[in-house]
Amino acid sequence: MSHERIFLGTSGNDGRGVYTATFDTQTGTLTEPVLSAELPKASFLCFDGRNESRLLAISQTPGAPAGEVACFHIDVAEAKLTEVHRASTQGTGAVHVSAQGGTVVVANYVGGSAASFHMDADGTLHPASFFQFNAADHGPDTKRQDHAYAHAADITLDGGYVLINDLGLDRIHVFKLDAETAKMTPHGEWLSAPGAGPRHIALHPNGKWIYNIDEMGCTINQLAWDAIAGTLTTLQTIETLPPGASKVDVRACDLVFSKDLRFLYAANRVHEDFVVFSLDAATGALTEAHRHANPGKEARHIAIDPSGKWFLSANQFSNEVSVFPIDTATGKLGDRSSSAPVNNPSCLLFG
Questions:
Q1: 351 near 5, Cβ under 8 Å?
Q2: Structure pTM?
Q3: For the purposes of burial, counting CB atoms within 10 Å of the CB of 281, is it exposed (0-12), middle (13-18) or buried (19 or more)?
Q4: 175-184: b or e for each residue (b if 16 or more CB lie within 10 Å)?
């Protein structure tokens, strides 16, 4: 199959909602994205963990006291989304959502909080847990870390825990998850370097390694995950910027594995480049292998297409999605081969 469906989340004042496009895996080209569901600041998307005919999107209406998470039914024939249910995230600045089984978890960036929901088989969302993180634990950067800023909420592959990246508190909160009720119980935490600002993680399919990218520190931490003890241990920390590059206002952003898991890709905003790391199959250790300039601006999210041959970047400030060919033998990126216009793209989801 050479044509794959892709959903695009959008952020900022010009992002109107969730868009749909078709990606040609032979030519590496996107059709022009079409608005499928109007939703303010629908900046992140995921599928229902049990049913990929349903899509979840977070939303934040400007001025509203809390964000929302919305569940949509996907009409494949019409390339249309029909809303099934919507629930409050109970905190402002909803920024990330993930789902597994009947559990949905959300991070509220501005509010510095996280919420979990039990989702019925029909897509109805029921609040299960809410946690407001303690502002007194904030990091040393008074400009960016005046309180908690929850930036990602991920369920571990074993399904037993939830990991909440907190840029403001320089830590990843670890919660024990009851899969039957979707309730979260505080379990522990992993601490980054002071002022690093943990942003997003990538979970290796082997269930043993988790890679964290620090937005402000411009570093990647390889972490060992112990699913029995529910603990994260640092194995390696590596820079995302070249030697001598200034970290002032640079924001490392996102991570994605190559399809064969031999490489890990990362994006730097402001410095505007992508860095490719080779991944040791035995130890998981990273070694920088390649660096490629981003001709767009503000790569908010990156993705690899299902064929493994193309790298995509959602360039939020240049209002387009860029496509780059991948040399699958070396992991290197070629020059941008195509792009498609969309206002404030912030999430790319194939499926």
A1: yes
A2: 0.97
A3: exposed
A4: bebbeeebeb
Q: Which residues of 33-70 are buried (b: 16+ CB within 10 A; e: fewer)?
A: bebbbebbbbbbbbbbbeeeebbbbbbbeeeeebbbbb
Kindly report the number of other CB atoms within 10 A of residue 94's CB atom. Answer: 33
| Torsion sign (Cα): 87, 89, 94, 96 | negative
Q: Which residue has the tokens 């559990």?
A: 103
Q: What is the 3-state secondary structure (H, E, C) of the chain?
A: CCEEEEEEEECCCCCCEEEEEEEECCCCEECCCEEEEECCCCCCEEECCCCCCEEEEEECCCCCCCCEEEEEEEECCCCEEEEEEEEECCCCCEEEEEEECCEEEEEECCCCEEEEEEECCCCCEEEEEEEECCHHHCCCCCCCCCCCCEEEEEECCCCCEEEEEECCCCEEEEEEEECCCCEEEEEEEEECCCCCCEEEEEECCCCCEEEEEECCCCEEEEEEEECCCCEEEEEEEEECCCCCCCCCCCEEEEEEECCCCCEEEEEEECCCEEEEEEECCCCCCEEEEEEEECCCCCEEEEEECCCCCEEEEEECCCCEEEEEEECCCCCCECCCCEEEECCCEEEEEEC
Per-residue pLDDT of the chain (351 residues; tens, 9 = 90+): 699 999 999 998 788 999 999 999 999 999 999 999 999 999 999 999 888 799 999 999 999 999 999 999 998 776 689 999 999 999 999 999 999 999 999 999 999 999 999 999 999 999 999 999 998 889 999 999 999 999 999 999 999 999 999 999 999 999 999 999 999 999 999 999 999 999 999 999 999 999 999 999 999 999 999 999 999 999 999 999 999 999 999 999 999 999 999 999 999 999 999 999 999 999 999 999 999 999 999 999 999 999 999 999 999 999 999 999 999 999 999 999 999 999 999 999 999
